[in-house]
Write a structure and sequence with these properties.
alpha/beta, Glycerol-3-phosphate (1)-acyltransferase, 7 strands
């Protein structure tokens, strides 16, 4: 039932709204259907980013894909945390390890061990539109532990202009969600993995801008 609920929200409502009203276009989204489990890694400029990615998932995937979101922002109150989890299926984590809290990386491990998938934004927070921030090492730690799980690089163009950081009103604007081909981590060094993933997304952006 939960999968059907999410399917109605994302595939029938949000996807059509983003495509028809807002102007979001999807490129190579079919790669998601070829993987049973994956880790989506994307640049990040807007809250719309998560909605755009979730809106291309199939019914069978929606219930098992969890966007990783900041618990200190989306879980400020029990009600906000409940609404976030209900409508986005998010995995809420604290951005820093607390004395009595569980390591946020371990929460991701538990999720992947169950066979579920993740959506990660390695920049950690929304930056200025079309300016990618330095990636944090969390993605490298996760991919080092799970080299058998494919990561799918995603490049987003224009999302920060649809809903800039600090704004609450959507502005229609041509935007793109570009999915790269699945890849696997081949290094045992966290720093090298982070650099490689960042390179994948930069390459996607360069290919996109050459064609558009």
């Amino acid at each position: 039932m939960r999968g059907i609920f999410l399917f109605i929200i994302y595939r029938l409502l949000i996807r059509n709204f983003l495509r028809v009203i807002v102007g979001v276009k999807y490129i190579n989204a079919e790669v998601l259907s070829k993987q049973k489990q994956f880790i989506i890694v994307s640049n990040h400029n807007s809250h719309i980013d998560t909605l755009a990615i979730m809106s291309v998932l199939k019914l069978a995937q929606l219930e098992k894909v969890h966007p990783v979101a900041a618990g200190d922002y989306f879980g400020k109150s029990p009600l906000k945390a409940y609404i976030t989890k209900l409508f986005t299926n998010a995995l809420l984590i604290q951005r820093t390890k607390t004395l009595n809290g569980q390591n946020p990386i371990e929460l991701m491990f538990e999720c992947l061990d169950k066979g579920d998938s993740l959506i990660l934004f390695p920049e950690g927070s929304r930056g200025k539109p079309q300016k990618m921030q330095q990636f944090k090492k969390g993605i490298g730690i996760v991919l080092k532990k799970y080299p058998n799980i494919a990561y799918i690089p995603v490049y987003m163009q224009g999302m920060g202009k649809i809903l800039p950081k600090g704004e609450s009103l959507l502005v229609p604007f041509d935007a793109y969600v570009v999915f790269g081909e699945p890849a696997y981590s081949k290094s045992n060094e966290v720093e090298d993995i982070v650099i490689k993933v960042e390179e994948n997304i930069v390459q996607l952006s360069q290919i996109f801008h050459k064609k558009n």
